[in-house]
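Dear colleague,

Following up on yesterday's call, I've attached the two folding results inline so they're easy to grep. Please treat them as preliminary; we haven't cross-checked anything against experimental data yet. The first protein's sequence and structure tokens come first.
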Amino acid sequence: MLILLHPGTPEPFPNRRDAALSATGQTEVHRACDRMRNVYPDPPRRIVTSPIPRALQSADIVRRCLGMGSVEVVDALDPATTAHEELNGFVKALEASDADTLIVVQNPELQLLVRHFIGWHGQDDGTADTVEIAIPPGTIVGVDLKQRQVAFRTDGELAPGDPAREDISTLPEVDAVGRAACDTDLDLRTPER
């Protein structure tokens, strides 16, 4: 089992990367813990996180709420220092492992991981995918690596038309892609705006 958690909302800060978790963000993470308890009664034993402050704080809340062990900081999940090879190495090791893992990671790395795990690497014509997956803070994403499917659980607001719904596999255009085999490296192309 693999669970991804988008950290809670950060405090307003000029550099969002270095912002601490806000009071709202703490509430979002506590709600995510409640959802995890209900959906995944036997939580993963391993918890890894990005080194950014709000991710570290979110991971610590989850660790305490779910009675998990220590938190492992993974530099490959840091948006400021991540090299393509480091992130791909982390993903390959994760996919080769049988260890149930909870990963606390922010965007854009969260979006990249979700796209990778469902095999969503671009348009049929090979161009970069311009559809962004809006994943609100405090959202948990359950990943079935064998079936290449994901399920989103959130109580956040989603913009109309976003593919991030209660269960992404219910969307026909994503369902077919969600079942595709994915043996490629992460596609780190930035969606065009």
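Below is the second protein, in the same order (sequence, then structure):
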Amino acid sequence: MAFGSGFRFTGVKFCKKNISAVGQGSFTFIVSILATNRKAYYLFKILKVYEAGIQLEGWEVKSIRQGRISLRDSFVKIINFEPFLINAYIPPYQRAQGSGVDTRRPRKLLLKKKTILFLKNELSKRHLTMVPLKVYTKRRLLKVEIALVKGKRGFEKRREEKERSVRLRLENDVEEALGMALGKE
């Protein structure tokens, strides 16, 4: 079944890993998440999220589409009113000819000028930082989800971990009780 032959997705989540269809009215597209920065969710409090395009070379696009990218320890910095993704690791494409490529080079992010000015103002005024959260494909394009974040303190991390463990314990207890109730019948 081809997607272009009248088949329409609206807000449906696929069963396959990290693929979902997102739609608004008659306009829909498929989003495939290629990488996430799980450490950022633990270390930072996310205040606002933005979607940005990324300027890449051909071998980088091919490598990212294979899922070979690491956002660990990467961040976004605005230099001369241009946002750059710093310290993101993209290994060389396996079938590429040549060597000597810089796998951690700064990569320019594509945002609207108004958004860049707002982010620069927020970063300087409120002592915040920007980190990438996800890399995904939207239609045929690669996008980076960046977030304006504030660092969590130690007690906030511990409290969040405790709440998570309590929630998991409760879910396990409910599943166990439900399994026992169904088993007895």
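For the second protein, one point worth flagging: The radius of gyration is 20 Å.

Best wishes,
A.L.
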